[in-house]
Amino acid sequence: MNVLEIKGVSAGYGRIPVLHHVSLVVGEKSIAVLLGANGAGKTTTLRAVSGMIKYTGQILLDGKDLKGRGPDQIARLGIAHGVQGRGTFSDLTVEDNLAVGAFRRRDKAEIAVDIDQMYTLFPRLRERRKQKAGSLSGGEQQMLAVGRALMLKPRVMLLDEPSLGLAPVIIDDLYEALQRVNRLQGIAMLIVEQNANLALEIANDAYVLETGSMVLSGTARDVSENDGVRAAYLGN
Amino acid sequence: MQYFFQQIVNGIGDGAIYASLGLALVLIYRTTNIANFAQGEMATFSAYIAWQMVDWGVPLWWSFLIAIAVSMVVGVLAYLLLVRSVQHRDELTIVIVTLGLFLAFNSFDGAMWGFLQLSLPSPFPEKSFAIGALRFNAELLGTIMILIAISIGMFLLLQHTRLGTALRASASNATSAMLVGIPFTAMMAIGWGLAAGLGAVSGLLVGPKLTLDPNMMGAIIIYAFAAAVVGGLTSYRGAVVGGAIVGISQALSMAYLPWLGSDLQILLPLMLIVAVLIIKPEGLFGSTVVIRV
Fold first, then answer.
1. What is chain B's Cα-based Rg?
2. Are A7 and A168 in contact (CB under 8 A)?
3. Nearest-CA distance from A1 to chain B in Å?
4. ipTM score here?
5. How far is A191 from chain B (nearest CA, A)?
6. How far, in whole angstroms, is CA A15 from its chain's centroid?
7. Which residues of B lie closer than 8 Å to A, measured between beta carbons?
8. Which residue has the higher pLDDT, A4 or B283?
9. Which among A91, A104, A137 is the nearest to B181, CB-wise?
10. Chain B residues touching residue A52 (CB < 8 angstroms)
């Protein structure tokens, strides 16, 4: 059973087409990674899924067509989208950011437990819980963005270059946390990355976009052994 | 000395009114990033609604509550029908739209209720109390108590409720707010509704003090803008403190600078705005936006 299915999606901004018949699936409890160079259409794909741009084709969450729904409705159905860069609420405290992440949920007691769980996952956030998100470092903000997305208890989490601009040791921590969340809570993920090594290590499936078209797909292992991918995205 | 302190007390009373309208300005500025020049005219409209209710024989306090409720609905509609479509346009467009709203409310009031002065009864008894050598009348105490109640209410709403957190999140980052499932348009509309309610309170406090006519809030809105700008335009606390500063300085200048006369009074808030913008552009409590990379 697939959680997320993208079928023949074309999209763009105004009259400029970016995606051409892109198809992709994210299986139950699995991690898919979407690779591609700058401008290949990775972010556009995620934006189509979360309802931020119009598209033709079909996007299904648990078999339910998402077309015509706004981003807030899609979020309430269970898609959490961690945008690239500053996706946090900079004037809110770390704790309020996490609480807002659970906006679609009504289980108050559970929410408090989950906030505590995020602090266990990202101990730095516990130290800074009363600080405004805008005052955090880049790495801490990225962790907060991931934590906030998880608070939604999503069916599938979309992450746009979570490692961008982070120090290697922090990227390791972040990916370890993502893997743990995926294993323990069974949250499916679609991760967009340029820096593909770590993403391919934790992913089940991988897709490669080139100038708006899907040029390669398969298991993460197969894709990472592809010569073209090795040259373009793995640095060897 | 006693005269001096009495002026300060009176100034705080007026300041509370500027603060309540200033809070409305801050609320809209924070949630939709718009300086709503029509806020005062919307408050005048609220006062007319109350007058109309009283005229129809509705008890005074009910009239006021109905006026506040109607104003909130009108605020929501103003956002949904007009402001929403221009919200993301350039600043000049937005300014023109709020000035259009200003004229629309002003003309509507005139067309409905005429330009003659009407009188709105005061909700407070004509009593006064002496504390030491200072005199407090019921209106002054009531006005200050209402402002305190509004401030506490807003604090609780914004800081301690789910709706408040959603409002703050929408103001902070619209895209991320939608991505966690917050209905953004509804939040903006609620922000405008709440602001219209706050503005209505100021209109209902001003109405009985002055006489009710379509231009009643003309000067008050300038004092309220001064209060909000002195406080930093993004800070609720700033609007309250700014209101007190503007009210007190106005009372003192009336007492000690009589040569200013009532016509030049209006210069005072404008001078305060200019002084703050020159010395501390972010206001006393405002936050400068720090972008960290």
1. 19
2. no
3. 25
4. 0.89
5. 16
6. 27
7. 162, 165-166, 168-169, 171-173, 175-184, 287, 290, 292-293
8. A4
9. A104
10. 175, 178
Residue B25 amino acid letter: L
Instruction: Give the SS3 label for residue A188.
Output: strand
- Best of A83, A96, A100, A148 to substitute, by most chain B Cβ atoms within 10 angstroms, is A100
Amino acid at B274: V
Q: Which of A103, A105, A114, A137 to mutate to test the interface with B (most CBs of B within 10 A)?
A: A103
User: Hey, what amino acid is at B285?
Assistant: F
Q: Which amino acid is at B243?
A: G
Could you write out the DSSP letters of every residue in A68-130?
A: T--HHHHHHHTEEEE-SS--S-TTSBHHHHHHHHTTT---HHHHHHHHHHHHHHSHHHHHTTT
Contact list in B for residue A96 (CB cut-off 8 A) is 165, 168-169
pLDDT at position B293, please? 39
- What is the reported pLDDT for B55? 96
Give alpha helix (H) positions in chain B. Answer: 2-32, 39-55, 60-78, 84-86, 91-113, 138-160, 162-172, 174-179, 184-209, 218-231, 236-256, 261-264, 267-279
**Are the beta carbons of A49 and A66 closer than 8 angstroms?**
yes
Residue whose tokens read 């995020």:
A118
**Helices B218-231 and B2-32, packing angle to 10 deg:** 80
Return all residues near B292 (Cβ < 8 A) that are at least 6 apart: A134, A135, A136, A137, A138
Tell me which chain A residues have a C-beta less than 8 angstroms from the C-beta of B178: 52, 70-72, 75
Q: Is B97 helix (H, G, I), strand (E, B) or coil?
A: helix
Contacts of B165 in chain A (CB under 8 A): 92, 96, 99-100, 103
pLDDT attached to residue B292: 41
Split chain A (236 residues) into runs of 10 and give each run's mean pLDDT. 93 89 95 91 94 94 94 95 85 94 90 93 93 91 92 94 87 90 93 87 93 92 85 71
Span B128-153, average pLDDT: 89
